[in-house]
């Protein structure tokens, strides 16, 4: 208690000391900004990772088997075969083609997927992002388009449109494409690049357009239990298929996103903790100057019987208190910003009229997810750095010789 009392008196007296007061305040401010920035940055990174798992990986195939030459026959049997493999949750047929969407003379390219509307929900959560339509209730004449495709063509729900698909049975590559008529049943609104490219139609319509039998498709997709083991599961399960297929997984197509997120997390940890360390070690310089300035006071305390441990604790508490104040204020600001950064970003985009994430990343908004484990880790590491920073000046205070100081 005596050390705390003396530390408070020193702090109160130092408010009048120009340079020392400035250094202590700047170090506290540096710790505060570093902690706040780290909390916000980690929350945004956590948000991107969450969106990758819950949004992107819920729609893109975990595992895909694509026939390079001949179509996959008897797809219901192959689906059952895949679902019996370890790690596979569900499987479904799929036909993927690149086509042009035509409406009132305007054309827009799209990645068209022919799916089984009744079973597609087992392997994809895209239905959760479809407005004004239920995937399982769609008919063979219905089509679902990405929000940006529909907006750029001026399409509204119920409009009739034409899908231009290359004719695989034509002798010449310059042959006229097949024209398939559909009715827009809904739009996909995921808030990312998928809104600009994806179109969903009935697998039966594409089977007819491509001259395939009712039990033939060009690909199969599967949902796995552990998304981070998708590639191993894909290779193992693929060996059970009798067809010649290309094996693919989300880690090949989207894995770089996950690796980027983890790399950015590591860089943020390193850089911001270095900033906190620099700010904390500013405490060292202010504390060393204070020890030199207060040598006479320290000497008097020693002559009055103050123990070395009391002197050491006094200056250690003094330094840690600066870092603790900065850390607590930084935590408050960081948590407040992390909880509202998505709304602040949305308001800024509406004000500026330009979204810097549009067409760049897999989502077009700034997500945030606050993990209290991160908050505890940031606070703990900051305090550890602060304590280490205070050891040297506190030890210097203990080494003050009363006879030399007072005798001189």
SSE map:
Layout: H1 2-14, H2 18-56, E1 63-66, H3 75-83, E2 88-103, E3 106-115, E4 130-131, E5 142-146, H4 147-153, E6 160-165, E7 178-188, E8 198-202, H5 203-209, E9 219-224, H6 230-238, E10 246-249, H7 250-253, H8 255-293, H9 295-303, H10 308-352, H11 372-398, H12 402-407
Parallel strand pairs: 3-8, 5-7
Antiparallel strand pairs: 1-9, 1-10, 2-3, 2-6, 2-9, 4-7, 5-8, 6-7
Helix pairs in contact: 1-10, 2-8, 2-10, 2-11, 8-10, 8-11, 10-11
Distance between the termini: 31 Å
Shape: elongated
Beta strand %: 15-25%
> How do the strands line up in the largest sheet?
2-3-8-5-7-6
Largest sheet: 6 strands, mixed, barrel
> What order do the helices and strands follow?
HHEHEEEEHEEEHEHEHHHHHH
Q: Report the helical percentage.
A: 40-55%
Task: Determine Rg (CA atoms, Å).
Answer: 32 Å
Specify the number of helices.
12
SS-derived structural category = alpha+beta
Average of the residue pLDDT scores: 82
The total of beta strands comes to 10
- The residue ranges in which pLDDT falls below 50 over 5 or more consecutive positions are none
Subcellular location: Cell membrane
Protein name: Lipoprotein-releasing ABC transporter permease subunit
Membrane topology: Multi-pass membrane protein
Family: Belongs to the ABC-4 integral membrane protein family. LolC/E subfamily.
